[in-house]
Amino acid sequence: MKIYNTLTRKKEKFVPINPGKVGIYVCGPTVYNLIHIGNARPMIVFDTLRRYLEYKGFEVNYVSNFTDVDDKIIKRANEENKIASFISEKYIEECKKDMEALNVRPATTHPKATEEIPDMIEMVKVLIEKGHAYEKNGTVYFRTRSFAPYGKLSHKNIDELEAGHRDDAHVLKVTGEDEKEDGLDFVLWKPKKEGEPSWPSPWGEGRPGWHLECSVMSKKYIGGTIDIHAGGEDLIFPHHENEIAQSEAANGTLFARYWMHNGFLRIANENDEFEKMSKSLGNFKTVREICSVYDPQVVRFFMLSAQYRSPLNFSPKLIESSKNSLERILTAADRLRDLMQSPKVNDEPEADINAIKKIDEFVDRYNAAMDDDLNTADAISVIFEFVKYINTVCEEVSTDTVGKFYDVLNVLTDTLGIIIDRKEDVLDSDIEKLIEERQLARKNKDFKRADEIRDDLLKRGIELKDTREGVKWKRL
Ligand code: AMP
Ligand code: ZN
What we know:
This protein is an alpha/beta fold. Helices cover about 50% and strands about 15% of the residues. The protein has helices spanning about 35-55, 70-80, 85-100, 115-130, 160-165, 170-175, 210-220, 235-250, 285-295, 295-305, 315-340, 350-370, 375-395, 400-415, 430-445, 445-460; strands spanning about 1-5, 10-15, 20-25, 60-65, 135, 140, 185-190, 205-210, 225-230, 255-260, 265-270, 275, 310-315, 460-465, 470-475. The model is unreliable at about 170-175 (pLDDT under 50).
């Protein structure tokens, strides 16, 4: 597989550090709000990368953090008269619900910044000992010029950056960071302000800087050198540049071998120009909002309709077109399932032999597209051609071949996180009725019937939980 590496600006053959194993770190959201569909793009894209690597036989250690201490969380908490952890816990749960709806699998580990503070303090200590950091009145800064390769990821020249910072000198004063030795230095640890969450440290009560969190969590859950580090392209500078500086200065080893960055999800402004969807511009649509109108599968399919590095424009018309495209795939899958119900043996095996050959060709072309820097747009085109082919020949081949069509279609779409097995619509009222029947069966000690009902519902995607407050159910 080839991956475009932001560090080298080239597509490179992917070779993991340990054969057969891959460690991926993806910067996760700051949790103070429901996530918008722009935030969902890296989640869907890199979940697809993980699925594809697993499909190729790799064992993937996928780590994605929640930034649960941050100015924006504190601000939101103050506005709502709540403590910061109430806000962050709430939005972590909401984010997980959105991820589940979009069929984004939970990470191997989802570390939270607030649970890793001792390791962060340790890294800051090491940086100070090595002369890469210094403390001024409770704030610890990274001495950027002490890390010679600074700028290597964003391909920025340190002297140009310095000049830019001098022009912004008044801004620095306003943010209270005028005690830095150099305008380029950035914060590793900041002192507590009244009403803010804080932790004890050798430099007084305070909290970590954002960049430091990812350096520490990736090291702890993957290792000193990680295979793939990913996130949206807005994170290249300064966030990822600073992560590299901290980690490489502290650990003395290469931080990440491949850097992958997704392009922006954009939305039209009032002049019909597309711009980045962002919380600060206020032009965002939450995943929750969109998924109340469209099947979350359609949203996922839409996200993968472009190669991840290209900008992707969001509009109801484009989502509608994704909906129709996905429906074509699902209809073909329905047809195959119907055909599998009526067994047929072919006296003329020619059609079957050809079909098997064709399946291999489609799979090879799908793999080639995905191997080319995860080109999901081309991979989806191959799936369409496959579906077209299925529709042309599926009546002529044996049930065995129909089954193979289905299995292959299922594997290829599943690698994209798309489910072709339509879930039967079960009405809430039917579920309630069955739960009542199950309660009655249990009361009559007819546990066999009670278990039957529970298993039947589970098959239809409904999970029951017996709690002290009664039976609770949820759709899987
Ligand atoms: P944030 O919560 O703003 O730190 O963002 C979490 C993740 O979403 C980061 O990887 C961002 O780069 C990414 N992201 C934010 N907005 C967009 C967007 N409009 N398009 C694509 N990715 C985005
Ligand atoms: Zn990060």
